[in-house]
Predict the 3D structure of the following.
Amino acid sequence: MAVGLRDEDLARWATRTGVRVALLLLLAFAANRFAGSVIRRAEREVVETGDAHGHERRKRAHTLGAAFGRFVSGLIWVTASLVILRELDVDITPVLTGAGILGLAVGFGAQTLVKDMIAGVFIIAEDQVRVGDAAIVNGIEGSVEEINLRTIVLRNLEGVVYTIANGDIRTLANRSKDYAYSVVTLNVSYDTNTDEVIEAVQAAAAEVMKDPALASAILDALDVLGIDDFAAAHVTMRFRLKTLPLRQAEVGRELRRQIKKMLDARGIRMPVPYGRLPDTDR
C-alpha cells in the first residue's frame, strides 16, 4: 500500500525543517527562562537597604516584574509560533489578517475588557498599589495578592479571595504605602489630670521604642494629638506613633499594653460606664 511520504522525504524533513522547529522551540524556551531570570534578578537588585524606602521599592519592583514577565513570555511564544508556522510552509499572512479582523471585532464586542486592561495599566504605572500592600478596594479590605492587567486579587483576614475587575474600581485606599500610624484613643474622666495621662502615654511609648523587636518599625516619636472630644462622662484624648507599613497593628498592641501598665502605676483609672438602676419599689 502506498503512503503519502517516502522514508527519504520524511528523513529529509526531519533533518531540515524538523530540526529548525525543534531549535526554535528550544530557543523560545531558553529566551523565556532567561527573561524570567533577568527580571527576578532585577527585582532582587533594586535595593539592598532595609529602610522604609527600600521596602517600598521592592514591592513596586515585584509588581512591575510580575506584569512585565507575563507580557514578555506571551510575546516570545507568539513570535515563536508565527516563525514555526512559516518553517512549516504555512502562509501566515491570512493568519495575521484574520487576527487583525478578529481583534477589531473583539475590540467592539469587548469594550469592558479593554477598559479593564487600560485601567490596569494606569494602576501599575501610577504605583497606586503593589503586591503585598494592605488595601481597601470598593469597600473590600485585604492583602493584594496579584495585580493583573485585567483584575486585582485581594485576600482578607479570613482567607476569602476577591477578584475585582480593574475597570470596576471606584475607590482604592492603600493602607501600607510609605508609612502608617498606630492611633490610640483614651477616654479619661473629667477629674483626671490630663497632663499626667500624657506623661504616662509618653513613658509607655518610650518603653515600646526600647523593644528590640519593634524599635526598627517606629519611624518617629510619639505624636500627642491632645484632647479630641468632650463627652457626657469623659474626655477623649488621642495619640499616634508613626510606623513602617503593615507594622502599625503590632506596634499598637504593645503600646496599649504599656499604656495600661503606666496608668495602673500612677493610679489613673478609665471611666466606668454607668446607667440608672431601675426603681424596683414601684
Notes: Residues 9-95 form one domain. The chain is about 50% helix and 20% strand. The radius of gyration is 31 Å. The chain has three domains: 9-95, 129-174, 180-265.
